[in-house]
Design goal:
By secondary structure, the chain is mainly alpha-helical. About 80% of the residues lie in helices and about 0% in strands.
Length: about 80
C-alpha cells in the first residue's frame, strides 16, 4: 500500500471516465422544424388554456364569496 491508495485519487478518475462514456452515448437533440401552422395551433392552444384558467379563477372567487357569507352568518348566529 502506497500513499496514493489511501487518497483514492485513481478510483475517482475511473468514475469520471465511466460518466464520460455514458455522455458519449447520448445523442444530441435535433432542432424541431416549426411551420407557421404549428405555431398558430400552439398559440390557439395557449389562448384556450389562458381562458380556461380565467374561468376557473372566477369560479373560485365565487365560491370564496359564498364561503365568506356563510362564515359571517355562522358568526352572527354564534354571537346571539
Amino acid at each position: 500500500m502506497g500513499i496514493f491508495s489511501k487518497l483514492n485519487i485513481f478510483k475517482k478518475r475511473e468514475k469520471v471516465g465511466a460518466i464520460d462514456t455514458e455522455l458519449e452515448k447520448i445523442k444530441p437533440l435535433k432542432p424541431m422544424e416549426v411551420g407557421n401552422e404549428n405555431i398558430n395551433a400552439r398559440m390557439e392552444l395557449v389562448a384556450t388554456k389562458i381562458e380556461s384558467l380565467g374561468i376557473k379563477y372566477e369560479t373560485l372567487n365565487e365560491r370564496l364569496d359564498r364561503i365568506e357569507k356563510m362564515l359571517n352568518a355562522i358568526y352572527e348566529l354564534a354571537k346571539q
